[in-house]
Amino acid sequence: MSRSLIVEQENRAHSAAGLMVWRVGVISILIALLYAEVLADLAHDWWTVDSLSYGMLVPPMALYMAWLRRKMTMQLPAVPDSRGLWLIGGACLTYVIGKLGAEFFLPRISFVILLAGLAWTYWGMARFRTLSFPLILLATMVPLPVIVYNAAAAPLQLLASDVATNTAQALGISVYRDGNIIQLANLSLGVEEACSGLNSLSTLIVGSILLGFLKLTRPGTRIALFALSIPLAIGVNVVRVTGTAIIADHYREIAEGFYHAFSGWLVFVLGFGAQYLLSLGLARYCEPRRSA
């Protein structure tokens, strides 16, 4: 091979690398300009709203999951796929609809859709599939839409108060329920939105995706763990409300003070513990044994 041909190939390689750097730079600047306010508002919610603080941990965990699969991703050839442009277009449309409707969820989730579209367009479907779980996890950093949260909160409040009332009555405690208010002999307990179980549900959903990635291999068992997290979150929250009602009948100060604060942490500990045991059970009984 002649020296001039080698030099020409090197120049082409440098030109291609420079063009790629230029494209990445331009796209990064455009994304920063478009989503700076959206991501700043999202980070503000994580920092100021206690029930959403888990969102601060999601992006680092998603990056870590992608890092664990980096060899699997990079060993596949990068084959640009124009079909990914449809996903990018969908992200842009979602962003515009959210902005026009003064809605927070759609512009925020469009950021994740846009990242998925860019990965598909520039790297191809094969590499995009290896990043599916990190992208799904990243989507959980966006809080539920207000309309969904409000629609789900009221039934869960009534469920928690109803089960707590029935359990307390079965234990011989004089109590009755008026809506989401639990009436004891000397005290009224209101099951507020924060006690509906939605806060623990959001956190346990993140945990189910992470445990599914680390402990399970089959898509079916991962989906099963995700689905089981919903009744699990509702169940541990019902236990919390029931415990508050029972303790309040005998020790009002403890129920309104120490137990009310401590039980919030206890719900997450019990939830994560049960979720971890579920993942081990699914791995043992629903997935093939790994040869030693």
Overview of this protein structure:
The protein has 292 residues and is mainly α. It folds into two domains: 3-139, no CATH class; 146-285, no CATH class. It has twelve helices and three strands, in the order ααααααααβββαααα. The protein has helices at residues 3-48, 58-68, 70-74, 84-100, 105-123, 125-130, 132-139, 146-170, 198-215, 219-250, 252-256, 258-285; strands at residues 176-178, 181-183, 188-190. It has a three-stranded antiparallel β-sheet, covered by helices on one side. The protein is elongated, with a radius of gyration of 25 Å. The mean pLDDT is 80.
Short synopsis of the structure:
It contains 12 helices and 3 strands. With 292 residues, the chain is mostly helical.
Descriptive keywords:
12 helices; single chain; mainly alpha
Our count of helices gives: 12
Largest sheet: 3 strands, antiparallel
Would you tell me the overall average pLDDT? 80
How many β-strand stretches?
3
User: Strand pairing plus helix content: what structural class?
Assistant: mainly alpha
Strand content: under 5%
Radius of gyration, rounded?
25 Å
The termini sit apart by 50 Å
Number of individual domains: 2
Break the fold down into its secondary structure elements and pairings:
Elements: H1 3-48, H2 58-68, H3 70-74, H4 84-100, H5 105-123, H6 125-130, H7 132-139, H8 146-170, E1 176-178, E2 181-183, E3 188-190, H9 198-215, H10 219-250, H11 252-256, H12 258-285
Antiparallel strand pairs: 1-2, 2-3
